[in-house]
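Hi Y.,

Following your request, here is the sequence exactly as I used it, all 1113 residues.
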Amino acid sequence: MNLFNFELLQNPFFYLPFHSSGWVGWLAMVVLLLFGGISVRRSSDFQQYFKWSKFLLALAMVPLAVLLVEIRVPSLQSGAVPNLPLEMNRTGILVFAAFPIFLAAGITGAFPSLIIGLATGFFLGLFVTHDLFSIAEWGFLGLITGIALSQKYRTTFYRLLRHPLAAALVVWIIFLPLFLLISFFLIPGSLAERLDFALAQNWQYYLMRGIELGVAGLFFELLCLLLPGFWQRPTHLIPSPAEVSLQSRFILFTVPLALLLFVILILADWWVAGRAARQMMESRLQGLTRVTSESLPYFLEAGQSLIIDFAKTDLIQKPPAESQLLLIENIRAIPYFRQLVVLGKDGQWITAYPPTNAENMKFAPDEEAGIALALKGVVVQVYPISPSPGEKSAQVSFIAAIKDELGAVQGVILGRTDFETNPFTQPALSALQGVLENGGEGFILDEQGNILYQTSAATPLTAADQFIGRLEVGKGLYEDTSPTGTRLLVLVEQVTGRPWQVVTRVPASVAQQIALNIAIPTLIILLVLFGAGSVVMFGIVRVVTSSLLKLTDQAVRISHGELDHAIEGKGNDEVGRLGKAFETMRLSLKKRLEELNQLLVVSQGVAANLEISEAIQPILKAALDDECVSARIVLIQEVQLDVEGDKLVSWGAGRQAELYQHLDGQIFEQMRSHHLLSIPNTSRVRRISAVNGKPHPAALIAFGLFFETTYYGALWLAYDKPKNFTEDEVRFLNTLASEAALAAANSRLYASAEIGRRRLEAVLSSVPEPVLVFDEKDRLLLLNPAAMHIPSLISAALPGRPLQDVINSENLIKLISGSLEDRIASREIPLSSGKVFYASVAPVMGDDHQLGKVCVLRDITHYKELDTLKSEIVATVSHDLRTPLTLLRGYSTMLTMIGELNEQQHVYINKIVSTVEDMTHLVNNLLDLSRIESGIPLKIEEVDPMIVVEKIIRQYQPHASQKNIQLTYEGPADGKRVMIKADLALLQQALINLVDNAIKYTRNDGQVVVRVRAGNERLTFEVHDNGIGIAPLDLPRLFEKFYRSGRREAYEKRGSGLGLAIVKSIVERHHGRIWVDSQLGKGSTFYIELPVEQPMVISEEEIREGGATNLKK
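Below is the corresponding structure, written out as tokens. Let me know if you'd prefer a different format.
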């Protein structure tokens, strides 16, 4: 593992492609990258500063990611890439190389990821691999990774693909075809060599890319789990292509599978072809090496035998000239040795052939050692002697001791030969030369690995280090790599009886060429089959999809209501049956729509006409068809107005409708207990009795007209020929019968409603009081004649006109247009004619909402005059009573000053004084009420309601304490003080009356609370007690003058019955309202609601108006 491998920065350069096909492949990949970049450019977002900064961070990470950590792969260091310079070898895993790509892809999209990939490839190519294809390789990785992580499709597969770890795996798989192409174009050499490198030798580099992608995917997957907001997540998902198009779905599922299968078949074909070529090559090399290895022992044995035969004492004992002749004779007899040398027992030179002198004769170290051993008695020895430079064959020296009859060593004979000239090695050499036909080499090695013979002089005979420690004897054919990076196929055979080895090796390209020759036919067949299969499959899919598109277009037309285009369903396959089903559906829908159109017309006719005679005409027309001659409806008489007695009413349509009218009664009675009567042939089924002299239909069908549980009549159809009724026909006619029953029910209801309306008109016409009815939008519905006879009340008595156009009185308009909820509003309405009416407005309620309003006016002019007279009399009498009451009270109190009074007299005096005080209180109340109602102007001033209430609380606190009643006060919840415009004296009087009543009618130990609530432009006073409460029957009359409850508890308390009437008058003078909530036995709460601002002038007309009392029960 290397950390911070900055040594790479010292030598930046690029190797250009080594051949024209390399340039073509590289330029094609550049075009693909440009096209991919343009395609994904719009989907990337550089607008945000956050994304710009992350992109620049990823770009800055590229050099560090490449240089930071590299894990060396030993198997890649042991050899070189074929035909490439050593500087282009990729020998390690760059652990962090893919990190910038994933960072850019996950944050900014596919286009920035492509840029980062190109930058990574450029940096790697410039400093590490020195090839231009690194740019394309990492550019494709960046583009595919960006697309995988930034796509917005919504299916499960694409959701998983947006996870970095899953994206790394998928990108690695998709990258395989591109990686094979890059590997093919990368190296120079023949087609076979490049194919072999791409398909068989480059998998380690592909695995390295997978590890680099996997490490980055795992890191960013963990980062996404820890920091979910760091990673870009699409917010709006779109349907995937497989969801949108059937053809796209087929392509997306079959094309990758077909490509994968195609690649697997190519790899398998290449593997099979390579294996066959390897076996062929192994078999051929084994034959050659076996012949060579088996021939060499005969060469050695013959040499040893001959040298022993030549070792005669005559060579020592005779003169050198004669010894030389013997040598010549031996060499010519058997031309095995190319030189023979004879030495004496002291190693001195004796003779040699071919002739030479002792000064020119040089012995190799092994020969000198062998001569020494031979002089010591070793019989025979064999020594291979390294050849001279430029020679193909080594020299083999045979040394034998020359002994006499006694076995004493008299000298040494040395025979020299070589593999090229020796006749005994020619079979072996001929076999070894057969390797040259395959472009290979053959070697004969000794036990030290020295080359004794080679078939080519290109390899130096002294380069023994290339074989030392690398030969694998008995393994068969195996692979090796030359120092130049060329792959070799090597076969080693041990020489029998000697530690020599026969080595044959051929370039792997030879086997690759053989494999290519074997694989090309299969590859062509695969390509043809793949192309033909693709065309056929796409044609089939095209046919299917085009048929489905036609069906889709037809379905769209059907959905738009276009049912006139016929669908051609060709064939009996699934698509053909689907087309026929669509055609059947179209016809059925067309028929159904025609029926629905008829039913719509029928429904519209039924809904638009309440007269039964008009409503049933569409039904009769819809029931008629080409076979039907009569369609009739017979109904009860209640469905039509102005029909007396129990006479049936009937209508008919059709060319023979009147001929079968005499059967209406029979069918009407038959259908009382039946919903359906179907007679396909009346001559066979006699359910309807024939009438003499009257025609009889051949078939008929009848439906009972029932609405809910009421029988209204029958709809029946007659045919002049027998007919079997289908289910669709029965269903359609039954629907028409339901519409007829509905029309009959509506007509009956309309008739009943019309009768009721006429009765209501008669009743309203006879009522002497004016009555007006309005709808929920205050538009006039009706009014009786009494309303028309009131002068200055009605301006336009037209139904449907707004309230403001109908009535002249503004007060009455306000009363009617006001909110009623569930109560009755009333008010005195003075008219310009001088008359006064008491108007009551009540809501007309439906189930849960208001339908309208009814206004009833009652003439109270006479009663108002009497009330005014009464008020004047009461005021006069009350005023005249004050003086005698004052004198009576004064003299009663003075009686105790005249003299002593007994106890009985004191009781009488106290009763007189108490009665006088009650009468005085009554008179004062009457006078107050008279002043209030007389229209005396109010003294409006700004009043603090909290101060008023606090003053009253202090005033009545002693009175409350006598009964142990808790008298308290609660201000506004927000504590804010609100001022109000009012008559201070009257306001105090109203509140005093309510507080006094509350204390009076509350039992001991009770509670009285006075609250002030501030609202929007309104102020509310609440006087709450938990006293005896008010009975529901007393609530409506509670504010009337002199009214007192009939309950015993109320009579036990002294009072005049004017207090609440005075309060009501004061509140109404202030344009307010008063109401009460009470529960018997639990207490009461009185509410006074006043406006914060008062109008400056109050007219007498408003003073005379009676306010609407809102009583909440």
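The first strand starts at residue 2 and ends at 3.

Thanks again,
Q.
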